[in-house]
Amino acid sequence: MKILVINGSPNGERSSTMHVTRAFVEGMGETFDIIDSLRADVKPCLGCFSCWMKTPGKCVQNDDMAQILERLLDSDLVILSTPLYCYSVPSSLKAIYDRLIPLGTQEQIEDGEGGTYHPGRQAINTKIMLICGCGFPNRENNIEAMDFQFDRMFSKDCPRIYTLEAPLLNTPEAKPLADNYLGYARKAGAEYKANGIISPETQALLDAPMLPPELYRQRANGS
Ligand SMILES: Cc1cc2nc3c(=O)[nH]c(=O)nc-3n(C[C@H](O)[C@H](O)[C@H](O)COP(=O)(O)O)c2cc1C
What we know:
Blueprint: E1 3-7, H1 16-28, E2 33-36, H2 50-53, H3 65-73, E3 77-83, H4 91-98, E4 109-110, E5 116-117, E6 127-133, H5 144-153, E7 160-163, H6 175-195, H7 200-207, H8 213-220
Parallel strand pairs: 1-2, 1-3, 3-6, 6-7
Antiparallel strand pairs: 4-5
Bound molecules: flavin mononucleotide.
Residues 9, 11, 15-18, 83-87, 133-136, 142, 166-167 line the site of flavin mononucleotide.
């Protein structure tokens, strides 16, 4: 299975999100290729719509995005592995989101729920999922914008893991909690490989904070 990880974290090997991503793929019994969005040369979208009007499917900019699109389409599974930044994706990943528009067309379709979308230019068989590390202990009033954007950009059916209190995965005193959590991520990977979904039981374990929120905030505040 060809798995491509698009990493939005600037933290390299120490990325708390990447700890979860590695455990998930390990649970699948697979390996992955990686693109670091911060190191990739992906310029902001120029908004010229040439990729729709003049050169359908091709951007006028000559940077790494053409190759990223090729690798994305050539993968069985793309995992977006990213920290939550200001309730959304980091800017390097937002540039990649914006530069996906050559895959769509200018046509506007009503989605049956009052929304509008641009249909794809071609059938895409690549599956996509999200693994997102969050520094806060709460999902509510935190992940909604990221989740909405991911739903609209890809599909409501794509699996996703939001790791609350993700910095604990890099905190030596929290190792037992981290080991437990990474065990759940491995289990999720095995379930996803076997059934194409994460079971509700494992999802609930992954969605829960590792420490009670009040205690986590006290620790984070150094008290
Ligand atoms: C610029 C910036 C903005 C952030 N915004 C949020 C946020 O809105 N919500 C949240 O839960 N954590 C936020 N965080 C915390 C990170 O999501 C958290 O530290 C995460 O574990 C980092 O993941 P990484 O180690 O994979 O880079 C922010 C961190 C930075 C640097």
